[in-house]
Amino acid sequence: MIRKGALMAKATKAESEATAERVRSTAAALFASHGFATVGLEQIALAANVTRGAVYHHFTSKRGLFEAVANRAQQEVADAVSGAANAEPDPWAGLLAGCRAFLTASLSNAHRRVLLVDAPSVLGWAVWRKQDASASGQRLEEALRELSDGGVISIHSVAGTAALLSGAMNEAALHIAESEDASAAFESVWVDLERMLAAFRA
Fold first, then answer.
1. Residues 48 and 82 in one domain
2. Could you tell me the pLDDT band of residue 10, with boundaries at 50, 70 and 90?
3. What is the pTM of this model?
4. What is the rounded CA–CA span in Å between residue 145 and residue 162?
5. Mean per-residue pLDDT, 129-158
């Protein structure tokens, strides 16, 4: 028999997790629209319909909340990469689709300001790179390993090549985000990125 107290404890935990998620998603929308520097915790708490104390309880600080927002954004970009890659029956086409999806998702309105503008300065490059490596970077390394094992590409090091391509694509995303004509910059970068990737084919 499950006691009433146990049910109440589970409900309380579920409510707490729901509150934390509401705060995070509310903060994500505000940070994406206005930037880290101009959004205060009181503004986030009011929009999420919670107290400022509740925000501190779940995330400790504004930086802690932003780190959670950035980490989720990285995972959402990685999910977009996986979705695009998995939709292609051919592994090579999957790599190309995944790389293009990385740029597209990183530059979306939901992620551009958080990941490309604020995260490097607010979190520092070490944290930013760690988040990227555990999300999109991991997907890229898995794709390269599959292609290398299948003889589709010829590379000396999977991890090294993943680092090279990840760095190139992150810099490309930053370049596009800072361009006056982002759409034109995207297509121009993509042409050269495709050529770079083609150089690895066996």
1. no
2. low
3. 0.89
4. 9
5. 96
Q: Which of 148 and 3 is assigned the larger pLDDT? A: 148
SS3 letters across the chain: CCCHHHHHHHHHHHHHHHHHHHHHHHHHHHHHHHCCCCCCHHHHHHHHCCCHHHHHHHHCCHHHHHHHHHHHHHHHHHHHHHHHHHCCCCHHHHHHHHHHHHHHHHCCCCCHHHHHHHHHHHHCHHHHHHHHHHHHHHHHHHHHHHHHHCCCECCCCHHHHHHHHHHHHHHHHHHHHHCCCHHHHHHHHHHHHHHHHHCCEC
- pLDDT score recorded for residue 97: 98
User: How confident is residue 7, by pLDDT bands cut at 50, 70 and 90?
Assistant: very low
In terms of domains, do 121 and 189 share one? yes
- In 3D, which of 170, 3, 151 has the Cα closest to residue 77? 170
Does 74 lie in the same domain as 6? no
